[in-house]
Amino acid sequence: MKNLIIINGPNLNLLGKREPNIYGSLTFTEFLEKIKGKYITASIDYFQSNIEGEIIDKLQEVGFSYDGIILNAAAYTHTSVGIGDAIKAIDTPVVEVHISNTFGREEFRHQSYVSPNARGVILGFGLQSYELAIQSFLE
Q1: How far, in Å, CA of 14 to CA of 34, rounded?
Q2: Residues 49/61, Cβ–Cβ less than 8 Å
Q3: Model pLDDT, residue 103
Q4: What is the pLDDT of residues 40-68, one digit of tens each?
Q5: Gap between the Cα atoms of 104 and 6, Å rounded
Q6: Enclosing domain of residue 65
Q7: In whole angstroms, what is the distance from residue 124 CA to residue 9 CA?
Q8: Is the pTM of this model over 0.90?
Q9: 17: helix, coil or strand?
Q10: What is the mean pLDDT of residues 19-43?
Q11: Which residues are designated catalytic?
Protein backbone atom coordinates (compact mmCIF):
# COMPACT_ATOMS: atom_id res chain seq x y z
CA MET A 1 0.00 0.00 0.00
CA LYS A 2 1.31 3.44 -0.95
CA ASN A 3 1.29 6.16 1.69
CA LEU A 4 0.31 9.44 0.05
CA ILE A 5 -0.57 12.83 1.42
CA ILE A 6 -2.42 15.71 -0.17
CA ILE A 7 -1.28 19.10 1.07
CA ASN A 8 -3.44 22.08 0.20
CA GLY A 9 -2.52 25.72 0.65
CA PRO A 10 -4.42 28.91 1.31
CA ASN A 11 -8.12 29.30 0.64
CA LEU A 12 -8.59 25.71 -0.53
CA ASN A 13 -10.55 25.14 2.69
CA LEU A 14 -13.25 27.20 0.94
CA LEU A 15 -13.79 24.75 -1.92
CA GLY A 16 -17.49 24.31 -2.53
CA LYS A 17 -18.10 27.95 -1.58
CA ARG A 18 -15.30 29.86 -3.29
CA GLU A 19 -15.81 30.81 -6.94
CA PRO A 20 -17.74 27.66 -7.92
CA ASN A 21 -17.43 28.64 -11.60
CA ILE A 22 -13.66 27.97 -11.29
CA TYR A 23 -13.42 25.49 -8.41
CA GLY A 24 -16.74 23.63 -8.51
CA SER A 25 -19.36 23.05 -5.81
CA LEU A 26 -17.86 20.01 -4.10
CA THR A 27 -16.11 20.56 -0.77
CA PHE A 28 -12.65 19.05 -0.46
CA THR A 29 -13.86 16.84 2.40
CA GLU A 30 -16.54 15.37 0.11
CA PHE A 31 -14.00 14.88 -2.66
CA LEU A 32 -11.46 13.30 -0.27
CA GLU A 33 -13.98 10.69 0.92
CA LYS A 34 -14.75 9.85 -2.70
CA ILE A 35 -11.12 9.30 -3.69
CA LYS A 36 -10.28 7.35 -0.53
CA GLY A 37 -13.02 4.90 -1.52
CA LYS A 38 -11.84 4.76 -5.10
CA TYR A 39 -8.10 4.30 -4.52
CA ILE A 40 -8.08 1.53 -1.93
CA THR A 41 -4.47 0.56 -2.69
CA ALA A 42 -3.35 3.87 -1.22
CA SER A 43 -3.51 5.35 2.22
CA ILE A 44 -4.33 9.00 1.59
CA ASP A 45 -3.75 11.55 4.32
CA TYR A 46 -4.73 15.19 4.08
CA PHE A 47 -3.44 18.50 5.40
CA GLN A 48 -4.56 22.05 4.63
CA SER A 49 -3.22 25.33 5.92
CA ASN A 50 -3.51 28.98 5.08
CA ILE A 51 -0.12 29.53 6.73
CA GLU A 52 3.08 29.18 4.69
CA GLY A 53 5.25 28.02 7.60
CA GLU A 54 2.80 25.25 8.52
CA ILE A 55 2.97 23.93 4.95
CA ILE A 56 6.78 23.94 5.11
CA ASP A 57 6.67 22.16 8.48
CA LYS A 58 4.33 19.49 7.06
CA LEU A 59 6.55 18.96 3.99
CA GLN A 60 9.55 18.44 6.29
CA GLU A 61 7.55 16.14 8.58
CA VAL A 62 6.35 13.78 5.82
CA GLY A 63 9.11 14.32 3.27
CA PHE A 64 11.23 11.36 4.34
CA SER A 65 8.56 8.76 5.17
CA TYR A 66 5.74 8.97 2.61
CA ASP A 67 5.69 7.48 -0.89
CA GLY A 68 4.31 10.62 -2.46
CA ILE A 69 3.12 14.15 -1.81
CA ILE A 70 0.40 15.83 -3.85
CA LEU A 71 0.81 19.55 -3.32
CA ASN A 72 -1.52 22.36 -4.27
CA ALA A 73 0.31 25.28 -2.71
CA ALA A 74 -2.34 27.61 -4.19
CA ALA A 75 -1.20 31.24 -4.14
CA TYR A 76 2.06 30.25 -2.38
CA THR A 77 3.03 28.47 -5.60
CA HIS A 78 3.79 31.86 -7.10
CA THR A 79 5.37 33.53 -4.08
CA SER A 80 7.05 31.05 -1.74
CA VAL A 81 10.73 30.42 -2.22
CA GLY A 82 10.55 28.66 1.16
CA ILE A 83 8.09 26.02 -0.05
CA GLY A 84 10.20 25.48 -3.16
CA ASP A 85 13.30 25.04 -1.01
CA ALA A 86 11.49 22.60 1.31
CA ILE A 87 10.54 20.41 -1.66
CA LYS A 88 14.14 20.44 -2.84
CA ALA A 89 15.34 19.39 0.64
CA ILE A 90 13.11 16.31 1.08
CA ASP A 91 13.32 12.81 -0.42
CA THR A 92 9.63 12.12 -1.08
CA PRO A 93 8.57 12.99 -4.64
CA VAL A 94 6.07 15.83 -5.01
CA VAL A 95 3.49 16.27 -7.75
CA GLU A 96 2.28 19.85 -8.05
CA VAL A 97 -1.43 20.16 -8.78
CA HIS A 98 -3.79 23.02 -9.51
CA ILE A 99 -7.53 22.88 -10.03
CA SER A 100 -7.53 25.70 -12.57
CA ASN A 101 -5.23 26.24 -15.54
CA THR A 102 -2.91 28.78 -13.96
CA PHE A 103 -1.63 29.78 -17.40
CA GLY A 104 -5.14 30.90 -18.33
CA ARG A 105 -5.26 33.24 -15.37
CA GLU A 106 -3.37 36.37 -14.27
CA GLU A 107 0.22 36.59 -15.45
CA PHE A 108 1.70 36.39 -11.94
CA ARG A 109 0.22 32.87 -11.71
CA HIS A 110 2.44 31.71 -14.59
CA GLN A 111 5.47 31.55 -12.24
CA SER A 112 5.90 28.57 -9.91
CA TYR A 113 8.50 28.10 -7.20
CA VAL A 114 7.22 24.53 -6.77
CA SER A 115 7.60 23.23 -10.34
CA PRO A 116 11.42 23.21 -10.60
CA ASN A 117 11.62 20.72 -7.73
CA ALA A 118 8.44 18.72 -8.43
CA ARG A 119 8.34 15.32 -10.11
CA GLY A 120 5.53 16.63 -12.31
CA VAL A 121 2.81 19.25 -12.67
CA ILE A 122 -0.89 18.66 -13.33
CA LEU A 123 -3.22 21.61 -13.79
CA GLY A 124 -6.51 22.66 -15.25
CA PHE A 125 -8.52 19.45 -14.78
CA GLY A 126 -10.52 20.57 -11.77
CA LEU A 127 -10.48 18.18 -8.84
CA GLN A 128 -9.51 15.43 -11.28
CA SER A 129 -6.00 16.94 -11.16
CA TYR A 130 -5.64 15.29 -7.74
CA GLU A 131 -6.77 11.93 -9.09
CA LEU A 132 -4.26 12.13 -11.93
CA ALA A 133 -1.54 12.80 -9.37
CA ILE A 134 -2.64 9.82 -7.27
CA GLN A 135 -2.61 7.62 -10.36
CA SER A 136 0.94 8.75 -11.14
CA PHE A 137 2.08 7.33 -7.80
CA LEU A 138 0.14 4.08 -8.16
CA GLU A 139 1.35 3.13 -11.64
Answers
A1: 18
A2: no
A3: 60
A4: 999 999 999 999 999 999 999 999 999 99
A5: 24
A6: 2-138
A7: 17
A8: yes
A9: coil
A10: 90
A11: 23, 98
